[in-house]
Amino acid sequence: MQPVIALVGRPNVGKSTLFNRFTRSRDALVANLSGLTRDRQYGLARLDERSCLVIDTGGLSGEEHTLDEAMARQTLQAVDEADLILLLVDGRAGLTAADEQIAQKLRQLGKPMLLVVNKTDGIDAVGACAEFHALGLGEPQPVAASHGRGIRQLTETVLSQLPDEEVAAGEDGSEAAEKGDVKVAVVGRPNVGKSTLINRILGEERLVAFDQPGTTRDSVAVPFERDGKSYTLVDTAGVRRRGKVFETVEKFSVVKTLQAIDQANVVILVLDARQGVAEQDAGLLGLVLDSGRAIVVAINKWDGLSDGQRDEVRRVFDFRLGFLDYADIHFISALHGSGVGKLFGSVDKAFASAIIDCKTSHLTEILQQAVQQHPPPMVRGRRIKLRYAHQGGRNPPIIVIHGNQTDNVPGAYRRYLANTYRKALGLAGTPVRIEFRAGKNPYEGKKNVLTSRQQAKRKRMMRHVKK
């Protein structure tokens, strides 16, 4: 089984930087601001030949009755899951009362623990570590996570503290890969209930859910299984209008959200039933459609609405989302769980549609039927000829059509072909992209070479002209 390492400490001591160093990624946001990480962030690390899971946690500040209280619960859950705890402290700031309080709480849990003194670049590392012996957590490990100094020695120490490697019973990595892991990004405006929805799906308080816009700032990946299938849910930061994004941190969060959309197989777009489709929703939906990702729409906060209000909400959403007729729309209550169970039927259907494989003969047959029922328009007195089609990609499905004058195919006819393929193939929840390839003239760029018969005929004509 893969061992689990939890990174714990005060805000802004470099936990996310060390997380990125271990996982060799940029999955955790890093900025010179306190409290940037609020949820547990999981990552896969390769320490020499040993694979392990690393958990980045929110900073512990000791404040109560605020958002920090929820962050502390997240950190304690991460500690409970961990085989080894790395307590990070700031070598430049020195030992603080908060460090002592955190160390005291962690000692009471009886978990294996290492003390890591970060930010020791440019200073006397031995002198910086000296005062931290007072915490009674053994020999401090000096590192500079942002520059990679001391990471090699820390890795060796971590490996010596991890439990012996065990062979897990059941399927191996190749078998799991063959099953496929459906990556589902949950996106939406701030405070529409994305984290609450994921907590409801998982059946635990996995993410911080707080009645305050912008609680989630990072994209948090949560792997889980449902009905024997593997999924990874990605909770993303709420995306606001560009004019409303003032903080640099929030700009980072938007980038992480867009990256999560681009890397997902299926996107669940969460909307607020009581606020309709706002400009931000339309912009975010446009980003999802541009990415070509399969989509499922979840209209949240359906509970508490009267029958008349629900009829009005349906009318508004039918009008504003009419172009999404290929996507499943669910009216749910993430808080109470109503309608949530049906989401994954649509997710599975959308994923299957997005990765479909089609034979060239079948795609060409659909094309010929579509052209027969509705021929392409004339262009400068000549009709566009579409000859055959083949599949050019998946996630989303790409249909490549070959013919003549394909550069002149109007947008309306392109949409007609996309809708035809979607219906003929039984696709749901995924867009279909149509690409055209023009046939080349085989004699283009070649000299006009005459056959021997043509040359003889030409000579006879020339003699006749001379006479």
Short recap of the structure:
With 467 residues, this protein is α/β, with parallel strands linked by helices. It is built from 14 helices and 17 strands.
Could you characterize what this model shows?
The protein is built from 14 helices and 17 strands. With about 475 residues, it is an alpha/beta fold. The protein folds into three domains: about 160 residues, 3-Layer(aba) Sandwich (Rossmann fold), CATH 3.40.50.300; about 180 residues, P-loop containing nucleotide triphosphate hydrolases (Rossmann fold); about 110 residues, 2-Layer Sandwich (GMP Synthetase, Chain A, domain 3). The strands form four sheets. The chain has a six-stranded mixed sheet, sandwiched between helices. Strands 8-9-7-10-11-12 form a six-stranded mixed sheet, sandwiched between helices. It has a three-stranded mixed sheet with strand order 15-16-17. Helix 12 crosses helix 13. The N and C termini lie far apart (about 100 Å).
